[in-house]
Amino acid sequence: MASAAARRERHRELIRSIVPEMVAGTVVSHQSAAVLYGAMLWRTPLERICVTRNRRGGGKTRPLVKVHGSPVDSLVELDGLPVTTPARTVLDLALSLPLESAVVASDALVGAFGLTPDELAGELARAKGRYGIDQAKRVLAILDGRSQSIGESLSRTMFHRHALPLPRSQGNVFTPDGRFVARVDFYYESAGVLCEFDGLTPYGRLLAPGQDVAATLRRERLRETYLRALGFEVVRWTWDDLVRGNPARRLRAALTTGRRRPDGRIEPAPARPPRRVRERAL
Questions:
Q1: Dist. CA 107–CA 28, nearest whole Å
Q2: Residue ranges of region Disordered (predicted)?
Q3: Domain interval for residue 93
Q4: For tag attachment on the chain, is the N or C end more exposed, with fewer CB atoms within 10 Å?
Q5: What's the distance, CA 180 to chain centroid?
Q6: Measured CA distances, 153 to 20, 26, 148, 149 (Å)
């Protein structure tokens, strides 16, 4: 079975070989646009490239190409190829992919390009009447560009499916006298609850050169002990936990018992600077 990187590279090659031969007005879209933008993907089909033609309806599927038909107002050029804008790409993914797949890729695009809720709401309004609009609304409500891994994005879909309040992402924890302690993946400030996704896999946190999993786990346990000493409730989960849904039960319990003011404080971590792309009319 080909690796994720190999599948993405093959998809790029298909785009480069097929799209230049297609009729004028054809724009790379959906997951193909996400691949060209370098977004993270999760269980996203890449057997066919996806393009959109500036018309209503008339979509068709060929062996290597899925053609969508819907109005396209503007585009971005990447390596000479016409591509839907980042915001439009998010909307297309939200309309067409399963919830988890759409959130993973869209989180990456929102974070990379600094997309705002107003931009995405505008795309949603322009998509009125398209199939999948109800799911698109659910996807947009979950998105958070601060997500730094596939596991973090999937964690928020878990919160959504279990009707848990969505936490804030990426917080810096400090001691009462202002010393930095740690950055956490998720936090509920009013409840004093911190959450960590332990993705010690190729999809999670990367280990530093020379580190092993055992050493990393020991360091994480010490870190958790310090956070608890500051008065925070800490909830952790792994890939296996996500599959079984266990974190939802533990997190709900922590939110119930953690309604106290910890000694430490937490602040939003600085957001990464967004990439800039130049859009033009089709």
A1: 19
A2: 254-282
A3: 4-145
A4: N
A5: 27
A6: 34, 31, 8, 7
